[in-house]
Amino acid sequence: MVQSGPHYSDGSEATTPLVALQATLQQMREQTDAKALIQLTLDYVGAVFVAPLIWLALYDYQNHQLVGQGGVTLPEDQTLLRAVHPLQPGEIMEQVVIEQRPISLPDMSQEPRMGIWQRESKRLGGIQGCLIHPIRSQRRCLGVLMLGSQVWGITTSEEEKALLGILLGQLAASLQQLESAWKQQTEKRLEDPLVALGIAMRQAGSLQERVSLVTQELQSFIGAVRVQVYWHERGQGQFSPHLTAPKAGPPAPPLAKGTKTAATPARDGSLPLRELGDMYYTLADGQVVVAHDATGTTRSEITPKLMQQLRAQAVLAAPILLQKDLLGFICVESDVPRTWQDTERQLVAAAGNWLALATPLEGLDQRIRQLASDQEFVQQVARSVYTQADQQQALQQAISGLGQRLKASAVVVLMLDPGTQTPRLFYEYRSEGKQPLPKQFTPLSEQDWGDLMRNQVLVAENYDQDLRLLSWRQELAALGTRSLMLTYTGHVSETQAAPIEGLILVMHQQLRAWSREERQLLRGIAQQLGVVLRQSQLEESRQRQAQLLNGLSTTCLTLQNLSTLPEIYNTTVQQTAQLLGIPLALLVSWRPGASHGQLQPPFATASEFRPTGPTEISLQDPLLAYALQSVEPLPLTHEQIPSASRTWLNSIGLGSWLLMPLGSGADLLAPLGVLILGAEAGKVWDPYERAAVMLIAQTCCWTLRRILWIHTLQERQEVLSELNWYKHRRLLDMQNTLLENLRRLGQVPETPGDEATRWQKVVEIGRGLRDLTTYTGPLLQSESWQVRPDSVSVPLAALVRKGLRRLEGLTQKRKLWPRAHGDMAIAVQGDAGRLEMILWEVLVAAAQRSPEGGRLDLWSQASEGYVELLVVDQGSFDPNLMAALQLDPEMVIYADPLLKSPLTVSPGLELSLCQRMVQRMGGQLSFYQSSDGRYVSRLLLPVGSDEVRPVA
């Protein structure tokens, strides 16, 4: 900008711009008219700065626009300079207003963000460079000053900027001072209308008069507006406008509880509760609702649809609230956009409070009678609960009476599970609706519990738009619930928090509000019914304990009577799961000293609960190691299961676990397993269930130990029995052989022939005596206490020959005819000494049961790697012994020794032992009766190898 000596409109000159500024500032300080201030500013700028464009505008904060106040242009038309310029986002002018700092442009005709000034720059004389300077005071922008030049890129000097800053600063200060003085003169005083309204309300005789006084006072104070009072119609779920009393006739009867004098149907002026939206909750919270279109926007509390229904451009609403009970609201409506002053808001709020205090007086008698009736009903419920023997009947009477008094669609009593706090259906009253209630509800969220504890009664008058009880949205939406109340039973004080037994839910299928009296009635009934629910919980707990005790006795007795390990494992998991009502029970077991455990077949109610991982688990597994450190049942959640253990404990849908080791702690014995129980997430294991699990686990442990002890002793007995039998048979065979050789030795002198022949006979007898030690040597050296059988290839012919030779004495005595048939030129695999004794035992048994003079046939044949040797006799076989010999030889070892059996006495004892020995050699010894009535002893042995050990 080019600076020159200032020239004023009267033709006078000042020597310097600074001197002219001083004179201008002095005139501005003495001025009391805003237009004069603006004109002084424009005169000084026009005189000091050579600028073909000077424009000054004031900022309208409410409408976010600049209002032109005039200036200087080359064209004589001043329309553009005095026009209103709305500020658009991103424009240079808005940037100057918001940032409150000057901006210089080299060529505003090339700057799109200058808006209309870019388009008009050529018409204004080809304006290019420009300076836009804010008019601000105390961080508030009051307007802008724009200087334009026909020269590109022209800028102002520091001296010029200082002059502009001083001038515009004084202009802003003077304008703000004038604005403050104007506000003080025009501001409405709240004290006078409040005092007048209070006196008038006290002197009025009816609610009709009080409403009329309120509307007149508000219209007088606020101006050209409409004032309407809306009352809350709870039964119809809407707000209805106050009915004006007719000029003739008797006065309208007073309103009670914020309702209309007559039960007239809703007309066009009524506002449904669902259309109020957030406005209803704001009013119910005791806040004033403000909405206006002066800035082109509307607050979210009042929807555009509601504004259209009210036919208003601006709305101010205050609640008529009495002890958190919304009786209605005062609505001030304007046909033009406007901004509501604080005093107006305060007066409307005060008027709402006056009406809230005056409204109960209209129906005081009716309210007293209603409160007395409610109190009597609560006392009747209390007497029924504490005196009636049948508390269930008392509950039914209380809930049905409550539902009828509240005109509710349903009243539901929910009992809380003590462990999981899961509400489940206990009793229901239905007046409408056929959709069945769910047997169990989702647990309440922490936020819902907090709201319930703070307010005692949780209310959702428009449940579809309410954020309360979101946890039950799915259950209640299916029932068509539109409004509800929820409270807890019993009494919870601030100093002592008693456990909550249950909840009472009141539902309605229409939008409706719940009065303070209705909430108090619900709370009073809920406090009394806590006794019924507490008694029911105690009864359920008693029944549950009795059920656990009976089931525990049955389970423990069953476990004590079992005799096999698989039966113990299966019974433990099945009985435990059924007793506790859980979907999965499994057991990991191992023998003492083992490093790995076996996952036994689990008991599961569904296939997805069954683990699908490996069945052999290391005892170093973190889950097993963690469980073995506990002497009591260990509860775990799914998140607490170590990741390494989830490879085998991978049940789907289970989130609560209980682990109990089988033996640990005080008994100082190594555990034999871990019992693992699985349930749905959220399951809480109560102390009775834990005690039952501990007793079952200990019983299972001692039963396992008893079975293992018995099996160990029986297996040891089997070894000793075999050793005893084998050594006894060897000793008997040695005795018979020794006696026979001694007899032969005594006959040597009588042997015909020379001395050499007799000596040869003695040598032969001596060789026979020497052969007696063939099997006794290894037997005495390696089989003192343990059985150590050998496996060699033995000629079958030699076995049969020696067996028949040992049987000669018995066959001669009973005049039997033994004969061998079939292929004897084959070998069998096994322990040679034991095979001799086994065949001897079979032949002796067959010979003893054969009749005198009968036949004894031996048949042999080889087939598919086995040699079959049949001993056929014509005797009579004890049928009991025959049936006992058909049992599994291995199971005979673990038979109850206290039970009498043909296998515990001879010959069954020896024959059964021979069966087990043959089985351990890979063969089979069986007995049966052939079709012709003869009895067969069948000895099946593996075919021997080519290397055959000679038999002595």
UniProtKB/TrEMBL annotation:
The chain crosses the membrane at residues 36-58. Residues 255-266 have a biased composition (Low complexity). Residues 33-185, 206-369, 390-543, 564-714 form the GAF domain. InterPro entries: GAF (IPR003018), GAF-like_dom_sf (IPR029016), HATPase_C_sf (IPR036890), Histidine_kinase_KdpD (IPR052023). Residues 243-269 are annotated as: Disordered. Keywords: Membrane, Transmembrane, Transmembrane helix. Pfam families: GAF. It comes from the Bacteria. This is GAF domain-containing protein.
